[in-house]
Every structure is written in structure tokens, then in C-alpha cells.
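Propose amino acids for all 338 sites.
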């Protein structure tokens, strides 16, 4: 099926082409992008071809555009005034990333016949599960650092399943939606997963992240197989090469999720209580016939790091990042190649 057309009509040529280039660089945006900087050329095209979605600058708006058979019209607002309350308005002068996010949010809600997006590369998405029964062992910092390092060369998505991740405060951001919303949208409209995913993604140092659950009890309503189905659909609808799961006991059917990971990293410590916890965890796996999880698990006893970056956006610098590059990545890529 040919891609649907998203048209950009804006007399500010450099802005319009910069927006088109950004959309194009996203890889599998489900639109064919056309830019128009003159009204006459736009109307000539629109009267002959079907346009699915139109991004229209405030200065280019005129009522005659609404007579065209364009299902979705979005005005790029400069003054903040509503030219037509029936149309969607988004701020023109904000990051291209935020514009795309708002376009996808609008399109996911408004488009009844949205085209399902399918992965264009033949690459498998590798799922890395990170879980330990040991507390306060740098699991999230390790996960985030690994994710940001991978994201330098591979498209990587990070999902956090902690009860209280604290990531909103650590990143200085407020999140409108979280991972439980994505799971809900997926159960209601699987074909729109790509649009929902793009509308919710947060970019942290190049690493893509879906915000973790604000209320962890909401995770209890989602069974393990539902998460596995969601991960498989993310693989089909996106170009992600790596999915990092920062897991905790808040997740229903945790072991089923771990079983479906390609590799599991478990951080351990030498103190007696930590050793006892890991020992009990492994015995539980054996008693419940989950030896395959144990077989794919790699234990990491991290050294003492004297200084870690305070900002999560800077985790690729410092001792932990150096340790991951020297010790974790060689084994990860070796496993993949073998």
C-alpha cells in the first residue's frame, strides 16, 4: 500500500523543509511528505491528489482550504489565536520532535482508518531484561547508561517497571501519559500503536523512553502475555533494534516476561543478605521450572564507582559508562553475533 500524503503548506521555506527533513529522518513515519511554499501549487496538487493530513501555517490559512477533501488539517499557530475552533492548533515554533509528537497524538485519536505501520527492516529487536532481587544496586542507573550507550549507534527503547522510579523529578519533566496508557491503547486499537508510541516517547540523551507508571498498582491489571504481545507489536511497528526492560516485582507474571527476553542481566553484591536474596530467587526459578531464565542470565557485580553523573542525560560519561563499554558490550554483541 502506498503511503498516505502529509502536506506542509508554509511560505517560510527554510522552516517547511527543515520540518520535512526531520519527519523523513524518523525512518518509518507512515506518510509521504510533500512541502508547498506557494498557494497556487498547493491547490493544484490538492485538487488532483488525495491528502491525508495537512500541516498549515497560520499565515497560509484561508477558508477555501477547508472545502478540499482533506480529512485532517492542523494549523501551525504563531499568534496563539484560534482561526477555526473545529481544527487542531499546535505551536509552530517548538522543537520538531514536539511537533511530530503532537501530530501523532492528534492523528491517533482522530483518524478512524489510520494505516497500520509495518517494520521496514529485517532486523530483529533484541530484548534485554534487567532484574535483580537485590535492592539499591544501581539497576536503573545501569539500565539507563546501557541504553544511552546503545542508542549512539542503535535505535533503542527503554521501559521502566519500578513502583517509584522518580524519573520525572530526575529528568525535570512532567509526563502526560505513561506505560500503562500505552498498554491500554494497544488493547483497544492495536493498528494505531505506532502513532501512540510516537506521541508518548521521551528522548533522553538519544535514548527513547516511555514514561513509567505513575501509580504502580495500574501495572497489576496487565498480565505477562499482554506485555509480551505489546513488545512483539513494537517490534513489528517500529525500527527499534534494542528494547531494554528495567524490571521489578511490580510486574504481574514477571517470570513470563523474563522468559521472553533474549538476555537477562542480574546485578549482584557480596554482602550476605544480597547473596541470600539471589540464592532464594534462583531456587524459586528452579522450583517453578524456569531454569531457562537462569540459563540466559548474566550476573554483574559492579565495582565501587566514586562519582556518577547527577544528570541522567549525561550517564554516557564517567566510570559506570566506561565499565559497560569495556565489559558489558563485548559480551552483548558477542552473544548476538553467535
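Proposal:
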Amino acid at each position: 500500500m502506498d503511503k498516505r500524503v502529509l502536506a506542509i503548506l508554509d511560505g517560510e521555506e527554510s522552516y517547511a523543509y527543515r520540518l520535512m527533513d526531520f519527519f523523513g529522518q524518523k525512518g518509518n513515519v507512515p506518510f509521504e511528505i510533500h512541502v508547498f511554499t506557494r498557494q497556487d501549487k498547493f491547490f493544484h496538487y490538492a485538487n488532483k491528489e488525495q491528502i491525508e493530513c495537512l500541516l498549515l501555517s497560520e499565515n497560509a490559512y484561508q477558508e477555501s482550504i477547508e472545502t478540499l477533501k482533506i480529512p485532517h488539517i492542523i494549523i501551525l499557530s504563531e499568534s496563539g489565536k484560534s482561526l477555526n475552533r473545529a481544527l487542531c492548533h499546535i505551536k509552530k515554533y517548538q522543537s520538531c520532535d514536539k511537533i511530530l509528537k503532537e501530530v501523532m497524538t492528534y492523528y491517533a485519536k482522530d483518524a478512524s482508518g489510520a494505516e497500520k505501520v509495518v517494520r521496514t527492516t529485517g532486523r530483529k529487536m533484541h530484548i534485554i531484561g534487567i532484574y535483580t532481587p537485590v535492592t539499591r544496586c544501581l539497576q536503573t542507573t545501569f539500565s539507563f547508561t546501557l541504553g544511552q550507550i546503545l542508542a549512539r549507534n542503535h535505535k533503542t527503547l527503554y521501559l521502566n517497571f519500578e513502583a517509584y522510579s522518580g524519573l520525572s523529578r530526575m529528568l525535570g519533566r512532567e509526563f502526560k501519559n505513561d506505560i500503562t496508557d500505552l498498554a491500554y491503547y494497544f488493547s483497544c486499537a492495536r493498528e494505531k500503536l505506532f502513532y501512540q508510541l510516537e506521541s508518548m516517547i521521551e528522548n533522553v540523551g538519544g535514548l527513547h523512553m516511555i514514561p513509567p507508571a505513575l501509580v504502580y498498582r495500574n501495572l497489576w491489571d496487565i498480565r505477562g502475555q499482554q506485555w509480551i504481545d505489546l513488545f512483539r507489536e513494537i517490534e513489528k511497528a517500529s525500527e527499534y533494534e534494542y528494547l531494554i526492560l528495567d524490571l521489578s516485582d511490580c510486574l504481574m507474571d514477571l517470570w513470563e516476561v523474563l522468559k521472553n527476553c533474549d538476555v537477562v542481566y542480574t546485578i549482584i553484591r557480596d554482602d550476605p543478605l544480597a547473596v541470600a536474596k539471589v540464592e532464594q530467587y534462583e531456587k524459586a526459578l528452579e522450583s517453578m521450572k524456569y531454569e531457562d531464565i537462569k540459563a540466559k542470565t548474566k550476573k554483574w557485580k559492579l565495582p565501587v564507582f566514586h562519582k556518577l553523573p547527577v544528570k541522567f542525560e549525561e550517564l554516557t560519561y564517567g566510570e559506570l559508562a566506561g565499565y559497560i563499554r569495556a565489559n558489558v558490550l563485548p559480551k552483548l554483541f558477542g552473544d548476538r553475533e553467535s
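The domain at 126-337 is CATH 3.40.50.300 (Rossmann fold). The first strand starts at residue 4 and ends at 9.
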